Structure formats: structure tokens, C-alpha cells
Amino acid sequence: MIVSSLSNWLRRHSRLAYRVARPPWRVFTKLLSQLGYREVRPESAYWERRRHYNYYREVERLARIHAPSGGQVIDVGANETEVLQRLDWFGRRVALDLRYVPPQPGIETVVMDFMAYQPASEFDLVICLQVLEHLQEPAIFARKLLATGRTIIISVPYKWPVGKSKRHPQDPVDEAKLEMWTQRKPVEVSVIADGSERLVAVFKS
């Protein structure tokens, strides 16, 4: 819808204007909900396009296996995804991104550079999905991921050819390149098809 497209444009180009516009938008959508319309959040368009992807279900499955006791989880590079909503057995859930992170019920948001982030304690689970391929220096970032939690789940595009995405300077990425970045062998690896394939790997610190 036009209003949603406008809000997404504001979020990308003017964080201040987006924050100013959010309160009246929330009042408006709450009113629509009371009148019987489904609430539409302006930040949901990205997630609505992606929520059906199989690799999110695989991340949830692996999280249940490798971090069944819950505790604290952080999604590094969360963007607008709501994958943390699926990890509801964790008592503390944190979404971190360099850009504005839309608020979600029960989720803490942190807007800052992950390389400058200094958590007060180690996380039980760290997830980082479809981020490393965007970075100029993914190895430094990957090793900080492993230093931030006990269990780490990373996903990357699997063997996407050079040029498939102009925003992926690291393509193609495979198991060997991910191990080179992390300096660690994963304890479990999955290759998930969502039209294009993604590699999902579990590491233990």
C-alpha cells in the first residue's frame, strides 16, 4: 500500500522523520484494529516477503537442539526480521543492527555497530543471518560473533555466483570460506533451498 511504501522510504532515507512519523501511525493502526481491520505495521513489508523462507525454520530447529535451555539470545544484523519471535523460550531476546530496528513485543533493540558492542555477559545463543557476505572484512566480524556467545548460528548464501547480488562482495561463499572466516569447524551444517540455497552452520565457542 502507498502509506507502507512511504514509511519504508522514510526509514531508509531519514531515520529522524521515520521516528517522528511512527507514533501517529501506531495510533492510526490501533484505531483500524479496533474497527475490525488487521493491524498493518509500516515496517512489516520486508519481513512479510521473507517470513516463509525455509532457512528461518532451520535456524529455529537448530536453536532448539543446541540451545534448548534458552537464556539470552542476540540477533546480530536483525534488520526488520522477526525471527526472534520464534525463539520464545529465551528469557532475554536482543535485536541489534547498525540501522534503526523496529520495536517488537518482548524484544530489546540495540542500534549500533556490532564491532563496538560490549555486552555485559556472554549470550547463550548468537544468530547472524545473511550478514557476512555484505562485509568487506567478514573474518573480524565472524570471530567477534564467536566471542559473544556459547552457541552461534550463522547463515550465508551458499555458492551464489559473483554478480548475482551487487551487495555481496564475498560471493561465492561455501563451507571452506566460512571456516576460514571463523577459524572454527562447525558442529552442524545444513544447506537449505529457498529458490536459492543458503548455508546454515552451528558453532560452539
Condensed summary:
The chain is α/β, with parallel strands linked by helices. The chain has helices at 2-13, 15-34, 45-50, 54-66, 138-148, 175-182; strands spanning 72-76, 92-97, 108-111, 123-129, 149-157, 188-194, 196-204. It is globular.
Secondary structure: elements and pairs:
Elements: H1 2-13, H2 15-34, H3 45-50, H4 54-66, E1 72-76, E2 92-97, E3 108-111, E4 123-129, H5 138-148, E5 149-157, H6 175-182, E6 188-194, E7 196-204
Parallel strand pairs: 1-2, 1-4, 2-3, 4-5
Antiparallel strand pairs: 5-7, 6-7
Q: Let me know the average pLDDT.
A: 88
**Domains (count):** 2
Oligomer: single chain
Question: In the CATH classification, which architecture of the largest domain applies?
Answer: 3-Layer(aba) Sandwich
The CATH homologous superfamily of the largest domain corresponds to Vaccinia Virus protein VP39
Task: Spell the H/E element sequence.
Answer: HHHHEEEEHEHEE
Which term fits the overall shape? globular
Indicate the low-confidence ranges by residue numbers.
1-5, 38-43
Rg calculated over all Cα atoms: 18 Å
Count of individual beta strands: 7
**Helix run count:** 6
Helix share, percent: 25-40%
Strand order of the largest sheet: 3-2-1-4-5-7-6
Termini separation: 44 Å
Main sheet specs:
7 strands, mixed
Top-tier CATH class of the largest domain: Alpha Beta
- Helix/strand/pairing class, anyone? alpha/beta
Explain this structure to me?
This protein folds into two domains: 2-47, no CATH class; 51-204, Rossmann fold (3-Layer(aba) Sandwich). With 205 residues, it is of the alpha/beta class. The protein has a seven-stranded mixed β-sheet with strand order 3-2-1-4-5-7-6. α1 (2-13) runs antiparallel to α2 (15-34). It has helices at residues 2-13, 15-34, 45-50, 54-66, 138-148, 175-182, and strands at 72-76, 92-97, 108-111, 123-129, 149-157, 188-194, 196-204.
